[in-house]
Specification:
With 454 residues, the chain is α/β, with parallel strands linked by helices. It contains 19 helices and 14 strands.
Length: 454
């Protein structure tokens, strides 16, 4: 349901517009002056404003400027009982969708409101398409584990139930989230993603909930957060288990109530979103270790979906190879490259620690680097790396008796220590080589009990 705000100092006009717009199945808010109208915009995710030019306290033109500066995506229809050409031209130049004279033609009002909302919806759809332009467009796989994943997607997509997607890095958790959104009733709304592990703890709350101008050093303008940008659609919180304890508490409240305040703000903002989260961690172990709030886990994990690792769905490997070969075929090539039966056997013997993402990168690489139309076993082994083919037990030495979480942390600790030594314990250089923020590296050093030599 689209939300329309009417700002007019005449009670009769507010009442008439409210009645006809509600008859058109819009949610309508009314304000008697500019200050009240701007206060409403802080609290509600409004889609359209109908604004009178002649207002007490704060003139309509000033209100229009404020709206276009702070909420540029909202369309504004300006109305006036003292209209002239100069005023109409000025309003349109400032960004108004249209200008109407009083007395109002109710039929014309409904038509222009419908057109303005259609334009706003089209802009929102274009923004959504830009974010999904390079996303995979389908889930490839017919193995039993993938059929189970697809069945869960089909069963859960139509509801607004919160979903947590579990699985290793590179298995396609984001693709599953996008497919749920695509099959849902929110598919025409935005799909907004936030990677909770890639944002420093000091910025995560601003990223999620936004901030008001002057809320902190560097906050030079009001900024909407991901929760607000996702209103009417889906919010995908990737690597949710990496949220800090303070962020977890605020996310819990926002998920429970679908209300929050921007940093530095005093008014609650209501949103209509579906929350899908994902993590590559054993989230139950994180809860047991008190690193992740149990109440937040139960809020997010109404429906858990486990995405299998590539080694758990080996029957899908030829299908994925064909899919990516077609995707990365040279523009002028008559047909996609193929892989010989011996080469495919080498691929099937490989453990694929990076899962589908690693396979995709491998196929792209050989399409660029190899001239063979049929890729040989020798070429496959060369580009994978001979030492990485198969499952060498020596690779597991020191890890065989450990649980998965313990093995992961043990390896992570050794890997970080090695990188620190390679970089002379320079935190910034090491973090850059690891592909993470220095603040994240500091947190891992503390968590894993690593001693930093000076």
């Amino acid at each position: 349901m689209a939300k329309v705000l009417v700002i007019d100092d005449e009670p009769g006009i507010r009442t008439v517009l409210t009645d006809i717009l509600q008859d058109e199945k819009y949610a309508v808010f009314a304000a008697g002056d500019g200050f009240e109208g701007l206060a409403t915009l802080k609290q509600e995710a409004v889609d359209l404003v109908i604004l009178d030019v002649w207002l007490p306290n704060l003139g309509g033109i000033d209100v229009l400027k404020e709206i276009k500066q702070e909420y540029p995506e909202i369309e504004v229809i300006v109305i006036s009982g003292h209209a002239n050409i100069d005023l109409a031209v000025r309003a349109v130049k400032l960004g108004a969708f249209d200008f109407l004279e009083k007395p109002l033609s109710l039929e014309k009002v409904t038509t222009i409101v419908r057109n303005a909302l259609a334009l706003e919806a089209l802009k929102r759809e274009n923004r959504t398409l830009k974010t999904t332009l390079f996303a995979e467009d389908e889930l490839v796989g017919e193995s039993l584990p993938m059929r189970e994943v697809k069945a869960l997607i089909g069963q859960s997509a139509a509801s607004d139930a919160k979903i947590v997607i579990l699985g290793e890095n590179g298995t396609g958790k984001e693709l599953v989230a996008r497919e749920i959104h695509r099959q849902s009733g929110r598919s025409r709304g935005p799909f907004v993603e936030v990677n909770c592990a890639a944002i420093p703890d000091t910025l995560i709350e601003s990223e999620l909930f936004g901030h008001e101008k002057g809320a902190f050093t560097g906050a030079v303008a009001r900024r909407k957060g991901k929760f607000e940008l996702a209103s009417g659609g889906t919010l995908f919180m990737d690597e949710v288990a990496d949220l800090s304890p303070s962020a977890q508490a605020k996310v819990l409240r926002a998920v429970q109530e679908l209300k929050f305040e921007r940093i530095g703000g005093e008014t609650s903002i209501s949103v209509d979103i579906r929350v899908i989260s994902a993590t590559n961690k054993d989230i139950r172990a994180e809860v047991d270790a008190r690193r992740f709030r149990e109440d937040l886990y139960f809020r997010l994990a109404v429906i858990p979906i486990y995405v299998p690792a590539l080694r758990e769905r080996e029957g899908d490997l030829p299908l994925l190879v064909d899919y990516f070969m077609g995707k990365f075929k040279e523009k002028d090539a008559p047909a996609p490259k193929t892989i010989s039966s011996e080469g495919m056997k080498a691929l099937q013997d490989y453990a694929w620690p990076g899962n589908v993402r690693e396979l995709k990168n491998f196929i792209e690489r050989i399409n660029i680097m190899v001239d063979e139309q049929e890729i040989s076993q020798e070429t496959v082994r060369f580009y994978l790396g001979e030492q990485r083919i198969g499952r060498d037990p020596a690779e597991l030495r020191g890890f065989s008796d450990l649980k998965l979480q313990e093995a992961r942390e043990t390896f992570e600790r050794k890997f970080i220590v090695q990188k620190l030594e390679d970089n002379g314990y320079n935190i910034t250089q090491t973090a850059q080589e690891l592909g993470i923020y220095p603040s994240n590296l500091h947190a891992k050093i503390k968590k894993l009990g690593i001693t930093v030599k000076r």
